[in-house]
């Protein structure tokens, strides 16, 4: 498990077919949540027998009966050279498909690879066969698909260990105390913790900062939920989500992040919407969170917004909104919200967030095409750097209906996360679930960890202080904890340093896991 911290269906198919026929790169603008998605699952260690089962899953809500996923998988060595490659096509007639292959740890010449770390990388695009593909071989078809639909490409990668590699030398680190949910297992009332002598003076709280309920397109019953729901149509709301996260997922916090443009009850614009109704629904969510917190000390219920659209945009969470941000107007010219925010205008949104004191998170960021300012994706903005404290580096499937924490469809956003850092954003990594079904916290064991000073009550003000300080890490293992220090300063701090800088990855596990690999990125 990895733990990371940081100092309209017909229209879609027609567009694909037209691009294939005209032999020109496709520029497709989807309805929200109609984007092509691909995920990779690769075990860090070989399975018994020495094989690595590699699982690829493809989702495309806009897929028609003739849509396929074209893909290429490489095993890369430390220099980035491909030592093994597969290519393929997988039908997407059911809008979801899964493909599994086994790799035996050898190179393309059949030789066992030297012990070390290798990267399994998946690249995939959606495609349909056109006239040029008739009679063509698989290689030519896949090559043409990537040339045609490169703007739709998804890249996922995971590292694997081949052979016996010496374990890293780890500094002694006494595990930090955990929040009351993690320690009691069933949810307790304790809101403060005292650290052990000689340890860092923090308590770790685990939870997720990205989920939906029936206030937007989430909350669908697990038995029937396979994707997002029609806005405000599902059975389960914010209180149900908080209850499940606390009592069944045994975690310390959950944010329900409702899509800002669905408070009018539609995925588009409801011209007959009553702004008072939309704003009242938003305020009822804030009230639900406040009431839950008052009745359940030791757990933090957060009600926020997921602002924006994915296609020609980018989703971002606002953790502490005081009103509904919106760009839609009804037929009477009334804003269906409290704050006007131009669609996909991120510079304007950052400025509003700074003015209002709001804190944000980049949600499932793509490494190209999203969060644009002046035509530059993931563009740096001084206001944005102040208000955007977090960025997702991993999610389990947004449409998972798994309730046993064993979801295999997971997405990594490390390439975009690295670009955000390179651009100058000071963001800490998070790991969420983006639940749209009623399985809050149950689809996988990944969590976001937040460090509060010992003796500090878990409430919204203290939680936001910790987030603004970037004392946050991302984990695929809810029992793992990592705290980076640099010359004694704790992760998230800004320091001025001259001379040697000693970086330490402090790692501990509540279940006795040990670190197999440690990497520092510069």
Strand and helix layout:
Blueprint lengths: L2 E3 L3 H14 L14 E5 L10 E8 L8 E9 L5 E10 L4 E8 L12 E12 L10 H11 L5 E9 L17 H5 L17 E7 L29 H10 L5 E7 L15 H21 L4 E8 L8 E3 L6 E2 L12 E2 L5 H11 L3 E3 L19 H6 E9 L13 E3 L1 H10 L4 E5 L14 E7 L6 H9 L3 E4 L4 E7 L2 E2 L12 E7 L13
Parallel strand pairs: 9-10, 10-11, 13-14, 15-16, 16-18
Antiparallel strand pairs: 1-20, 2-3, 3-6, 4-5, 4-7, 7-8, 9-19, 11-12, 12-15, 16-17, 19-20, 21-22, 21-23
Task: Sum this structure up briefly.
The protein has 522 residues and is α+β, with helices and mostly antiparallel strands.
List keywords for this structure.
522 residues, 4-stranded antiparallel sheet, 23 strands
Polypeptide structure, described:
The protein is an alpha+beta fold. The protein is 19% helix and 27% strand. The strands form 5 sheets. Strands 1, 9, 10, 11, 12, 15, 16, 17, 18, 19 and 20 form an 11-stranded mixed beta sheet that branches. The longest helix has 21 residues, at 275-295. The model is unreliable at 8-26 and 183-197 (pLDDT under 50).
Mean pLDDT: 90
Biggest sheet character: 11 strands, mixed
Query: Beta-strand level of the residues, as a percent range?
Result: 25-35%
Number of strands: 23
User: Which structural category fits the helices and strands?
Assistant: alpha+beta
Helix content estimate? 10-25%
Number of helices: 9
Radius of gyration: 23 Å
Span between termini: 22 Å
- The low-pLDDT segments are 8-26, 183-197
Using the alpha-carbon principal axes, give the shape: globular
């Amino acid at each position: 498990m990895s733990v990371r911290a940081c100092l309209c269906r017909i229209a879609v198919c027609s567009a694909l077919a037209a691009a294939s026929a005209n032999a020109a790169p496709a520029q497709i603008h989807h309805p929200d949540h109609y984007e092509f998605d691909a995920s990779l699952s690769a075990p860090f260690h070989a399975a018994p027998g020495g094989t690595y089962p590699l699982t690829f899953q493809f989702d495309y809500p806009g897929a028609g009966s003739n849509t396929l996923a074209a893909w290429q998988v490489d095993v890369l060595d430390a220099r980035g050279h491909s030592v093994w490659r597969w290519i393929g096509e997988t039908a997407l007639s059911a809008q979801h498909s899964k493909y599994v292959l086994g790799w035996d740890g050898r190179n393309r010449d059949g030789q066992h690879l030297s012990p070390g770390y290798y990267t399994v990388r998946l690249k995939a695009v959606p495609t349909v066969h056109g006239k040029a593909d008739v009679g063509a071989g698989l290689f030519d078809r896949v090559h043409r698909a990537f040339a045609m639909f490169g703007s739709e490409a998804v890249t996922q990668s995971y590292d694997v260990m081949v052979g016996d590699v010496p374990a890293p030398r780890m500094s002694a680190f006494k595990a930090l105390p955990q929040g009351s949910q993690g320690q009691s297992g069933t949810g307790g009332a304790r809101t403060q913790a005292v650290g052990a002598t000689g340890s860092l003076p923090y308590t770790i709280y685990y939870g997720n900062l990205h989920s939906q309920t029936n206030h937007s397109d989430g909350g669908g019953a697990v038995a029937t939920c396979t994707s997002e729901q029609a806005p405000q149509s599902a059975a389960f709301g914010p209180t149900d989500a908080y209850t499940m996260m606390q009592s069944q997922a045994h975690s310390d916090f959950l944010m329900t992040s409702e899509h800002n443009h669905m408070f009018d009850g539609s995925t588009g614009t409801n011209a007959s919407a009553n702004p008072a109704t939309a704003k009242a629904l938003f305020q009822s969510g804030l009230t639900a969170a406040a009431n839950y917190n008052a009745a359940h000390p030791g757990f933090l219920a957060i009600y926020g917004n997921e602002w924006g659209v994915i296609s020609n945009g980018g989703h971002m969470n606002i953790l502490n909104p005081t009103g509904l941000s919106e760009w839609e107007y009804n037929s009477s010219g009334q804003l269906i919200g409290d704050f006007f925010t131009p669609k996909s205008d991120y510079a304007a949104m950052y400025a509003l967030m700074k003015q209002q004191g709001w804190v944000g998170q980049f949600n499932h960021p793509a490494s190209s095409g999203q969060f644009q300012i002046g035509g530059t994706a993931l563009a740096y903005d001084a206001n944005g750097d102040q208000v955007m404290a977090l960025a997702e580096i991993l999610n389990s499937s947004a449409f998972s209906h798994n309730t046993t924490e064993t979801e295999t469809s997971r997405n990594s956003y490390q390439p975009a996360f690295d670009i955000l850092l390179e651009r100058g954003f000071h963001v800490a990594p998070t790991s969420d679930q983006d639940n749209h079904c009623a399985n809050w916290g149950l689809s996988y064991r990944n969590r976001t960890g937040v460090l509060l000073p010992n003796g500090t009550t878990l409430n919204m003000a203290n939680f936001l202080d910790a987030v603004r300080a970037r004392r946050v890490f991302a984990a695929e293992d809810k029992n793992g904890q990592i705290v980076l220090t640099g010359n004694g300063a704790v992760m998230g701090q800004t320091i001025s340093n001259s001379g040697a800088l000693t970086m330490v990855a402090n790692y501990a596990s509540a279940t006795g896991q040990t670190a197999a690999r440690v990497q520092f990125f510069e």
